[in-house]
Design a protein that fits this description.
This protein is of the alpha/beta class. The protein is built from 12 helices and 6 strands.
Amino acid sequence: MARTNWQEYNEQLVVRGEFYINPKFLETWDKETSDLNKKKIGQPYKYPTSMFEFCALFHARNFDYRTIEGLLRKLSELKINFDVPVWSQIRRRILKLDLKFSQPNHREAMAIDGSGMKPGTRGEWLREKWKVKRGWIKVVLLGDINGNIIDIVVGTETLSEPETARQLTEKHHDKISDLLLDGAHDTNETFEICKKHNINPIIKIRSNANPHGLNTRAQKVKYYQSMDHKSWVRETGYGYRWPASEGIFSSLKRVFGEITLAKKVENQFFDVKLKFWAHQRVLQLRQQA
């Protein structure tokens, strides 16, 4: 892997702060609202979508909606005297945001991994006092080796990571050249899906794997067992799994936290996806710096 340019990396982190307090929606307000109201029946939109994308970044850091309304009020006083929506409208528009991730225009190496996020309503006291279960939220992520998020699936703690990974592989097979996975995905089904779509599977093999057979997995097992683990990592580029998966989770949880304060399950899932969307937006700005 290439050496990190720490001066450049430091500047990217500084630019990240600029993104949070950068109300570009004031520059595009008229055009956006005009486009939103084309052929719209009923009451016209008064506020641009980019305003609520700006607000969503703060909500992703667990700012509640009333606090975000107060932030906009103060910004209105400091900048242009624009109309400020009430907190309930901010909430409605944020929940309507289309949280999409940009897609690559060519095939590249990617990784899939899972991690947990915490509902704010969970806790040992609640478990003991009311005898209720407050589980955790599971996220299965597809990312590239540059740290970009390609797609995520959010579910309860019962979400099957290997099965979800196969679904993501099927969905995005035309964008994946190499697929890096940990030992939980060392199954014939995963290897065969990769073979079907001409994807090179770089999967950590179990220590007790049987090398006999003619299928794709058996061939990979033989190759893995022909050298020590460190040599295999070096030869296959398995180390790139970190920036494409675990590194994304680590960075996101440091910046946006791993707790969602929403009470309804569907809103918890939305808030978790919002954190990943916001993380990707900030990363794109850093890459442009």
